[in-house]
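An example makes the point: we print one protein in full, the chain in one-letter code, the fold tokenised, without further comment:
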Amino acid sequence: MGTKCPLIEELQRKIEKTYALDTGIINIEEFVIGNKGYKKFYAKEKIKTVVNNSYSRSQVFIRDIGNTLKVSIYYPDELIKVLEDNDPRIGLHDDNIDACASFVEELDHFLFIAQNFKLNRPFSLLELELQANVTKYLVLKYFIALQSKSIRLSKSDKEYIRHHLFYKRKYDTDDPSERKRYEDAKIFGIIYTKYIDFLSHEDRLRDLRKFSRMTCSSKIRHIQSIRN
């Protein structure tokens, strides 16, 4: 990615600034592993998988060791290669949008797990999925705005993002509860992202920060109030 700041560092700063997070993470690259690290540390170990992303097996792994939480982000080498060859900061298109969304999703999970652990705040998998859907939408809008050199996206731009994030997604799982979680996070994500698109910049930022600090049930009630 040339002389630019590493993509993961830039997105970490953007996500933390958007939601006013204080994760305390200085060098996030220390927590990232590729294919070699995955085979070394996790391939034969029974460990809790917080998320198993549909794109190239991206995952967040978590271990609770007493008062310490061990969390790693696994990005397959092929996903990183896609983003290195097609930097979304230069252009977002069909060849890199899925890889970019997967990259953002795992990063968002990681940051919110770190934030919630720091605050001793419980969270649910539905909450993580829903929050990541919102973050992915915001980041993809940001990349398209860079590309078009305009902060105001067209209706077709927004629908392009929603198509790739929500409408085209198929959940390859035999677990009914897991499928319902993904479907619920998708539906709630669609409603909420459409809602914040109509807010002013100041109101949007205020609502996003408030939303990120809500419990899962409060998030759902907030979205249901919007829909009603």
